[in-house]
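Course exercise 7: structure representation. Students receive a sequence record and must write out the corresponding structure in token form. The form below is the worked example handed out in class, using Probable nicotinate-nucleotide adenylyltransferase (196 residues). Read each field label carefully; the graders check that inputs and outputs are placed in the correct fields and that the protein name is recorded exactly as given.

STUDENT ID: A-19
EXERCISE PROTEIN: Probable nicotinate-nucleotide adenylyltransferase
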Amino acid sequence: MKKIGIMGGTFDPIHVGHLMIAEAVWDEFKLDKVIFIPSANPPHKHSVMTSAKHRFNMTLLATCSNPHFEVSSIEMERSGPSYTIDTIKALKTIYGEDTDFYFIIGADCINDLPTWHKIDELLASCKFIATKRPSYTLDLTTIQQHFKNFNITLLETPELEISSTDIRQRIKKGYSIQYITTEQVQQYIRKEELYL
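STUDENT ANSWER:
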């Protein structure tokens, strides 16, 4: 049985927090690999994003040195909203039924799960790994009542106060983003003049 982690997100831009979480889940759950999937049209994000092409390229640059990280353009190749259930179905077609998928999300997103498209079907088709910071408290018992299939495991990960929003604001103000994202991503942002 193959075990594949799925790291979805806008990655606008990707940063070391994303990479550390993916590595921690890969290690803890003995996954074969983690696939990063930049979302093309995330239904829950309403702000203007950097083009999917730029976000894909940055994700590729940030992950290319890690042999068990991959990047997929699967959501960019599909029109309409980027629903996770459609992505998981497409991945099952590619990898076959003998693959277990582990969808990685931040614990702060768990409260939003009842609003996700076809969430019960999604929870039945893959395992969810919710990564939480040591200082973040979460009561899963109240959330469990919303779902028929509750397939969520909590994993404590290193505490890093990094966000893509913060990176974009720092660039706009002319501040350094050294050590917050990879050198390759920094070079790409400068070359493409993103977030100015």
